[in-house]
Amino acid sequence: MINVLIHHKVKDFSSWKAAFDSAFMFRKDGGETSFRIYHDITDPNDITLWFEWESVASAENFIKSEELVQQMKLAGVVSKPDICLVQEIVSMRRTAAD
Questions:
Q1: Residue 96: inside a domain
Q2: Across residues 29-46, what is the average pLDDT?
Q3: CA separation for the pair 33, 17 (Å, rounded)
Q4: What is the span of the domain harbouring residue 43?
């Protein structure tokens, strides 16, 4: 599984979220399999997104697409996005039995 991390600031989280939701099929058709949205503890307009993608190729096509640039503009992204492609190596979830 390939992960894409995107961090940027937005003008208004509620407006950004509506635009993000409207791009669901764009992301799904491009190979997204899941996503998570985080925001800074003190600033809800400072967000980090964690996506899972089917392949490196589909993730790279997504982050290099002109449509992504346009979607970000329409959504009110106000800072240059920091985008990273990463691959999970190890994962562990702690339980009460640990």
A1: no
A2: 97
A3: 18
A4: 2-87
Cα 85 from Cα 91, distance rounded (Å): 17
What the block records as the tokens of 66 is: 């002109």
Global pTM?
0.88
CA distances from 76 to 9, 70, 88 (A): 9, 10, 30
DSSP 8-state code for residue 15: H
Number of domains in the chain: 1
**Residue 75 to residue 83: CA distance in whole angstroms:** 17
Residue written as tokens 């399999």?
33
**Percentage of residues of the chain with pLDDT beyond 70:** 100
CATH code for the domain in which residue 42 is found = 3.30.70.100
pLDDT band with cut points at 50, 70 and 90 for residue 98: confident
Which helix (H) or strand (E) is 35 found in, with range? strand 32-39
Q: 97 in helix, strand or coil?
A: coil
Please answer whether residues 90 and 17 qualify as being in contact, where contact means their C-beta atoms are separated by less than 8 angstroms: no
